[in-house]
Design goal:
With about 220 residues, the chain is an alpha+beta fold. The protein folds into two domains: about 80 residues, no CATH class; about 120 residues, OmpA-like domain (60s Ribosomal Protein L30, Chain: A, 2-Layer Sandwich), CATH 3.30.1330. Helices cover about 50% and strands about 15% of the residues. A hairpin with a 6-residue loop joins strand 1 and strand 2. Helix 1 runs parallel beside helix 2. The longest helix is centred in the first third of the chain and has 55 residues. The chain is globular, with a radius of gyration of 22 Å.
Length: about 220
């Protein structure tokens, strides 16, 4: 077991060292997202392989695990790049959290005040999102609506956030995104982006978020 542990440690160091690249703007060493996923997969594979079959098993496990991990990391890298290009200048924010991507759609560019009907001017943006979701069809799609505490009762704000999420989900489905991938619900005034001190409306908190989640088998 001591030999196997040493093999895993050495292999882990080798994998992580190989992941380092130089940023052409800063000159600093850094690790790319897809390579990080490959490293994680390689280390996990190495551990399993070493336990099963010593040194040779560790290297085999690293190769298989690294390929699987880097594959999904690379997939998300590519999807993120395409979304950022498609949505540049639209007002929609693209955020990355590990294996997940989040599209933040402010309500002031998506809906009329107090309405769940999508603004006609926002259709081209959702068309672009739908196009990318059809091209990258491994993700699950979670659409979540949010409101602030103003402009109605808590129940009305919750209902409106639900209706807006459902409107976006239906439109994405109309653009060819499979309904089996999509869930939609509202969260009302919960999870504000800007802290609510109770003094004034906070438009930034009125939004729809589209979360692109890893497939269930991951």
């Amino acid at each position: 077991m001591k030999f196997r542990s040493k093999t895993v440690v050495l292999l882990t160091a080798a994998v992580l060292t190989g992941c380092q690249t130089t940023n052409p703007y800063t000159g600093e060493q850094e690790t790319g997202k897809s390579v990080k996923y490959g490293a994680a997969g390689a280390v996990g594979g190495a551990i399993i392989g070493a336990l099963a079959d010593g040194k040779e098993g560790a290297w085999k496990g690293a190769l298989l695990g690294g390929a699987a991990g880097a594959g999904y990391g690379y997939y998300v890298d590519k999807q993120e790049a395409v979304l950022r290009q498609e949505l540049q200048g639209t007002g929609v924010q693209v955020a990355r959290y590990g294996d997940e991507l989040k599209l933040i759609m402010p309500a002031d560019i998506t809906f009329m005040l107090g309405s769940a009907a999508i603004e006609a001017r926002f259709y081209p943006v959702l068309n672009s999102v739908g196009k990318v979701l059809k091209e990258f069809d491994d993700n699950l799609v979670r659409v979540v609506g949010y409101s602030d505490r103003y402009g109605g009762t808590p129940q009305r704000n919750l209902e409106l956030s639900q209706q807006r999420a459902q409107s976006v989900a239906r439109y994405l489905h109309s653009q060819g995104v499979s309904s089996t991938r999509i869930t939609a619900f509202g969260q009302g005034a919960s999870n504000p982006i800007v802290p609510d001190n109770g003094s004034k409306p906070l438009p930034a908190n009125r939004r729809v978020e589209v979360d692109l989640l890893p497939p269930p088998q991951r």
